[in-house]
Design a protein that fits this description.
5-stranded parallel β-sheet; two-stranded antiparallel sheet; Rossmann fold; 3 domains; elongated; single chain
């Protein structure tokens, strides 16, 4: 029985911060510490937070930092175990059985052993992650809150022991310990049993300086003044009393997309009219677009000292 291979470790939290930044992901120290501990302790990391705060992007950047393949399990209502773990190639098994019918002396037990071989196994994300060769994979279990409670219970064996049980084959353990990140938008509370098996971090919207760094890195065509105006505007949009006017305030992805749109429009300085014309980049709900009036845009664009 092969023990999980050790993880290649960043030397420090600072080293991890710099490595993520080199991949275009600007983590704060609290997030980098959580990731560092998840790697060092070989524990899954559960990230909760509003949509658009960078949970999925972290997994993508970390996979590049660690030079691991990224395997993504996108959760949704009604997700079944066979879609997450494995299923049998029934068509190939049927062909095997038909070919065996003419064989003399073939008994039922022997035939069953033949059709339940690994070559007839279709590996889904969990099994792919466990069987990935060294250095292992990074498994992203995305939006786990969208799946139902029975699926959470099914995950416990994997999260706690990095293994799964397949009735026809037995217990399959990790060949190399997969780095595992779960994300949740907290549309519902996850069971305590899932949380106990993970390290946990609530990921909030970034501070203004961090968001500015992200915008400047992702939109190099934006001038320093325009990038600063985007970061200031979005930060104030998420603050009170403005945030109460919207169903969902823009995330980091929307900030970056808005900056790209402003560059495409050759915008030098953001004004209320430009804000209204591009509100559909920042918001994805009709009510939120309507709530961003020209008067509100003017108030949001005022210098902080003037408010």
């Amino acid at each position: 029985m092969q023990a999980p291979a050790p993880l290649p470790q960043p030397l420090s939290v600072d080293a991890l911060l710099h490595a993520l930044q080199a991949e275009g992901y600007f983590a704060d120290r609290r997030l980098a510490t959580a990731v560092f501990l998840a790697l060092r302790l070989q524990r899954p990391l559960l990230l909760e937070g509003e949509p658009g705060v960078g949970k999925t992007a972290l997994a993508q950047a970390l996979a590049r930092v660690l030079a691991r393949s990224l395997i993504r399990l996108q959760c949704y209502d009604g997700l079944e175990q066979r879609e997450a773990l494995y299923e049998w190639n029934y068509a190939a098994q049927l062909l095997h059985m038909r070919a065996a019918e003419g064989r003399s002396g073939a008994d039922t037990a022997q035939l069953e052993r033949e059709v339940y071989q690994e070559r007839y196994l279709i590996r889904r994300p969990l099994l792919q992650a466990l069987q990935a060769p060294a250095p292992g994979a990074l498994l992203l279990i995305d939006e786990v809150d969208r799946a139902d409670e029975p699926f959470e219970a099914f995950l416990l064996e994997y999260l706690g022991e990095y293994q799964v049980s397949i009735p026809e084959l037995g217990t399959i353990r990790a060949q190399a310990t997969p780095v595992t990140i779960l994300t949740s938008n907290r549309t519902r509370d996850l069971h305590d049993a899932v949380k106990r098996r993970c390290l946990y971090l609530w990921l909030d919207y970034p501070e203004r300086e961090r968001e500015l760094a992200i915008v400047r890195a992702q939109v190099p065509g934006a001038s320093a003044a325009l990038a600063a105006q985007v970061a200031d505007f979005v930060a104030r949009l998420r603050s009170q009393p403005f945030a109460d006017a919207f169903q969902r305030v823009p995330g980091i992805a929307e900030s970056v997309e808005w900056a790209k749109a402003l560059v495409a429009l050759d915008t030098l300085v953001v004004d209320p009219e430009v804000v209204r014309d591009t509100a559909g980049v920042l918001f994805k709900q009709r009510e939120d677009v309507a709530a961003l009036t020209q008067d509100m845009a003017a108030a949001l664009l005022q210098p902080v000292e003037a408010v």
